[in-house]
Fold this protein.
Amino acid sequence: MSIAAWLGNLAGVAVVLWLVRELWLAHREGATVPQVAGVQAARITVQGGYGPAAVFVAKGKPVRLDFTRREASPCSELVIFDGVDRRAELPENETVSVEFTPRRTGRITFGCHRGTLRGHVIVVD
């Protein structure tokens, strides 16, 4: 294989890695949710993913997640929570609250109806 072919392959791999980073890993930071008036409340921006994509909450205390959708993508029109029987439509440029009380520690996954956007509520003692 020639040097030009190797360089072309290397450039292709670099582009793929950059796309993976930008599209799937860009909003992977986590945030500890502050408690206000007895409710753990967090704001989540929906734009190419969830920001933050992970929030840490305490078990047994009410949680309110305020989602604001800042994009027109049909994939982000709906957020579905696994394990807590919650879902919400997310109109563009409006804030929609999802409330629940986590009863056990672990990870609650939320995401779009297609499964391409994902986030997590991490419940701790």
Q: What stands out?
A: Helices lie at 3-24. The chain has one helix and eleven strands. The chain has one domain: 27-124.
